[in-house]
Amino acid sequence: MLEMRLYLAQRISAAILAPLVLMHLGLMVYAIQGGLDAGEILARTRGSLFWGSSYALFVIAVAVHASIGLRKILHEWLGWRGALLHGFSWLCLAGLLFAGLRAVAAVVLP
Amino acid sequence: MSSSAATSSTGSIAVSVWRGDARHGNFQLFQVPQQPSQTILDVVTWIQRHADPGLSYRFACRVGMCGSCAMMVNGIPRWTCRTHVNKVLRDNRLTIEPLRNMPIIKDLACDMSEFFDKWKQARGQFEGSSTRDQQVAALSPGLPRRRIADAATECINCGICYAACDVVSWNRDYLGPAALNRAWSLQNDERDCAGEQRLRAVAGDAGCHQCHAQQGCATYCPNELNPTASIAGLKRMVSQAWFNKGLACHPGKKCGLGKRHA
Ligand code: SF4
Ligand code: SF4
Ligand code: FES
């Protein structure tokens, strides 16, 4: 029942993403309208448990959601299956997690 | 009256009909006289009786009950006995092909074995637990679950939804809209006692979670059923059962429907 688990994981990650995307968009508008520069933004995010955990959750949800979606497209449109499909999905998940969490670390870690 | 000219005279329709088997085939053009209240099945029958007795196609009831006459008409799956020519005619032309997503046997007859096999895989059979000595279960048509079962029950097994479904064309294992719609109807039948096994059957990797819910099936179902909604219902039921830890259970344990079966 792998497909059922993937289905649930994709729906749950979408439900997590919905408010986080809105938060992220609102934050960008606020930062730009408020005229915050990079230094001021970093001053607010460095060492912040709240921003660190929110954006880490954001990255994890994106990685799960996107790799399942891509997996589906590759399976249905290109006919990928088996080890190739699994391997690519895991690679995609790992790549997105690595790039995303690295970016979060860069703005949160002191 | 097989003709090589694509032109259509007044009062006649240019009909391209698929001729061939699973390996080879081509369209053949026929000029068919137009009649009042003519159906697509009338057109095909006219060709077989007057132009080419070798044309193979399938029908039985001619009144939209048996589900055997479905074909692709101008690229859209339709029940041909209830489809009037004047509703679908484009530039006085018709293209008639066997149903999509199923192997062609010959001409307009396709092999529906996989379609019916998938009904079995989705446990589309009613499984009762009472014997003939027990009283017949009294079911009020107004009960909420009975209404849900009724809404999905008028399927005539025509295969039109199956031909309309892109997921079937991408994933040959997918159980498809008709089989899943049938499973949903039975899942809501109070008298049926195979809910748990059926839920496991439809939650498999070729089951309800493959559906993208774009409603191709619901758009073309001639009986205006909505397999998309039925499949969404199955997804909900499977999710509930899974969260209740019912789905992975073994016979004898409680299933997601709160029933306990042997
Ligand atoms: S809604 Fe689902 S079953 Fe119906 S045609 Fe689309 S993918 Fe197929
Ligand atoms: S659900 Fe509709 S389209 Fe599909 S087989 Fe049944 S009657 Fe035909
Ligand atoms: S011939 Fe029976 S439904 Fe068309």
What are the salient characteristics of this protein?
heterodimer, A: 110 residues, 3 helical TM bundles of succinate and fumarate reductases, 4 helices, 88% helix, 0% strand, B: 262 residues, alpha+beta, Ubiquitin-like (UB roll), Fumarate Reductase Iron-sulfur Protein, Chain B, domain 2, five-stranded mixed β-sheet, two-stranded antiparallel ribbon, elongated, disordered N terminus, binds iron/sulfur cluster, binds FE2/S2 (inorganic) cluster
Give structural notes.
The complex is a heterodimer of chains A (110) and B (262). Chain A has a single domain (2-108), classed as Up-down Bundle (3 helical TM bundles of succinate and fumarate reductases). Chain A contains 4 helices and no strands. Chain A has helices spanning 2-33, 38-45, 49-78, 82-108. In chain A, helix 1 crosses helix 3 and helix 3 runs antiparallel to helix 4 (82-108). In chain A, 12% of the residues are buried. The model of chain A has no long low-confidence stretch (mean pLDDT 95). With 262 residues, chain B is α+β, with helices and mostly antiparallel strands. Chain B folds into 2 domains: 3-110, Beta-grasp domain (Ubiquitin-like (UB roll), Roll); 113-245, Alpha-helical ferredoxin (Fumarate Reductase Iron-sulfur Protein, Chain B, domain 2, Orthogonal Bundle), CATH 1.10.1060. Chain B has helices spanning 40-51, 85-88, 113-121, 144-151, 160-164, 166-170, 177-187, 195-202, 216-220, 227-243, and strands at residues 12-20, 25-33, 70-73, 76-79, 93-97, 104-106, 109-110. In chain B, helix 3 (113-121) packs parallel to helix 7 and helix 7 packs across helix 10. FE2/S2 (inorganic) cluster binds next to loops of chain B.
- CATH class of the largest domain in chain B, please? Mainly Alpha
* CATH architecture assignment name of the largest domain in chain B: Orthogonal Bundle
Spatial arrangement of strands, main beta sheet of chain B? 2-1-5-3-4
Compute the CA-based radius of gyration of chain B: 21 Å
What level of helicity do the residues of chain B show?
25-40%
Structural class of chain A: mainly alpha
CATH topology of the largest domain in chain B: Fumarate Reductase Iron-sulfur Protein, Chain B, domain 2
Please describe the biggest sheet of chain B, giving its number of strands, its sense, and whether it closes into a barrel: 5 strands, mixed
Biggest interface, and residues per chain?
A-B, 10 and 15 residues
Q: What is bound: which ligands?
A: iron/sulfur cluster, FE2/S2 (inorganic) cluster
Topology order of chain B in helix (H) and strand (E) letters = EEHEEHEEEHHHHHHHH
CATH uppermost class of chain A: Mainly Alpha
CATH homologous superfamily (4th level) name of the largest domain in chain B = Alpha-helical ferredoxin
CATH architecture of chain A: Up-down Bundle
Count of the domains of chain A: 1
With helices defined by DSSP (H or I, 4 residues minimum), what is the helix count of chain A?
A: 4
